[in-house]
Structures are given as C-alpha cells and as structure tokens.
Amino acid sequence: MFCIFQMKFTFLLLCSIFGCAIAMRQQSVAVSGRLVCGNKPASGVKVKLWDEDDGPDPDDVLDEGFTNNDGTFRLEGSERELTNIDPVFKVYHDCDDGILPGQRKVKFRIPNSYISAGGRAQKTFDIGVLNLETIFPKEERDLL
C-alpha cells in the first residue's frame, strides 16, 4: 500500500516539475545606441542589460560590455521566466564626474513591446544618442 502511494506521489511530483518547466518561456531583448560625454564619444563605458525581478527571484544580467571607440554599443540577451521579463539598460560612467568615488549609474527601462519570444530578439530598442553629462532622475552611484 505504501509503495503505491509513493509511486503516485513521485508521478505527481514529476508532472508538476515538468509542467513548471514548460510554463517557463524563453524571452529575449536587445538594445543599441551611442553614448557621448559632451561633444566627444564616450568610449570604453560599461553597459549592462538586466532582467530586474521583484520578489525572491534574483536579478539576472542578460548581457554586458563596453562602448566602442565611437561610443556605440549593442547588447542582447535572453532569459526563461514564467512571467514577462523586466528589461533594464544600465550605464556606469565617469562623465562630468570630477573626483567623486565610484561611477555614476543610470538605468533605463526598455518597453515591453521590445521583448521577443524565443532566444533571439526580433527587434532592437534604439535608445538613440545619450549625452552622459545629463543629470538623470534617480541617478545612483556604483561604489563597487
């Protein structure tokens, strides 16, 4: 009798795990643009594409890199989530920063309309040309 109960429990557990795995949807996003500091290209600036999550699920880095010599960049990444991913583009820079410790950190939410199903982004969010001399609302400092 106990063996039959254990087999049913194991079967239900496996079905639950399989169901959750199928419900997790692969989603992707891409962002591109050009960063400047005043009238000069912001080359070598660290840029990251994140999936910021609420609750117990930790945030995930989808892609990261540095701007090219002309200040251009392109990031693309994907993640499996039960709900829609929440893509955020972050820039870590020292433009117009003086001698303050750490780097200025600004973040931009990417519209949901740029989230694609599957592992490759179907369209790229062009954030345009950003002048990093701008003081952005809710700007932070990255001290690590």
From TrEMBL:
Places the protein is found: Secreted
UniProt-listed InterPro entries: Transthyretin-like (IPR001534), Transthyretin-like_sf (IPR038479)
Pfam families in the cross-refs: TTR-52
Signal peptide bounds: 1-23
Keyword Secreted: yes
Gene3D superfamilies in the record: 2.60.40.3330
Residue runs in coiled coils: none
UniProt keyword list: Secreted, Signal
One GO cellular component, as annotated: cell surface
Magnesium among keywords: no
Predominant localisation class: secreted
Family, per entry: Belongs to the nematode transthyretin-like family.
UniProt name for this protein: Transthyretin-like family protein
Organism expressing this protein natively: Caenorhabditis remanei (Caenorhabditis vulgaris)
